[in-house]
Known about the structure:
Layout (H helix, E strand, L loop, with lengths): L5 H12 L1 E5 L14 E5 L4 H4 L18 H7 L2 H8 L20 E4 L5 E4 L3 E2 L7 E2 L7 E6 L6 E6 L5 E7 L9 E5 L4 E4 L5 E2 L2
Amino acid sequence: xxxxxxxxxxxxxxxxxxxxTSRLPASQKALAxxxxxxxxKSMPTIPFLGSLFTSSAKDMTEYPVKKSDNEWRAVLNKExxxxxxxxxxxxxxxxxxxxxxxxxxTYACAACAAPLYRATHKFKxxxxxxxxxxxxxxxxxxxxxxxxxxxxxxIVCGNCGGHLGHVFKGEGYPTxxxxxxxxxxxxxxxxxxxxxGEGR
Length: 200
């Protein structure tokens, strides 16, 4: 028997553990990739399985940009709020910047527009999320995330505290730091060196 590939297993597990179904309006059925208008939506309310893809640590750090949850909801869409403010995770291999490979430009925080990564920091890791071997100095803050009974290093925007993802060390990638900043695409925006942004 042949086993499914690792990305297929991750996508399947994420979908099962973090999704529910709902019906699409008739006008959008033609756009739906699923039969009979069923679409998967995020549901971070399955405590055990959903915790695989979230960070529960409460961040007590003070950041220059301070807003209430209601103020963040006014400037972020629902999925941005879930990931940036509630420390969620987007499904692997679905983000706009996973396979994005510009030669120049800057990735910034989607919540506050603070520059976080240069295009030259990005590399292809095959993990399903955008990967960077380093950040702009002082732009990213690290915290210990102890969800799931193990210690991981969470990374957040140093300007607003928005959740970006996690850092993994010692995986053997041929990069100058041997680190992989595994970042949610939805936590980012991109501008080229002329200041032109790309929509997601």
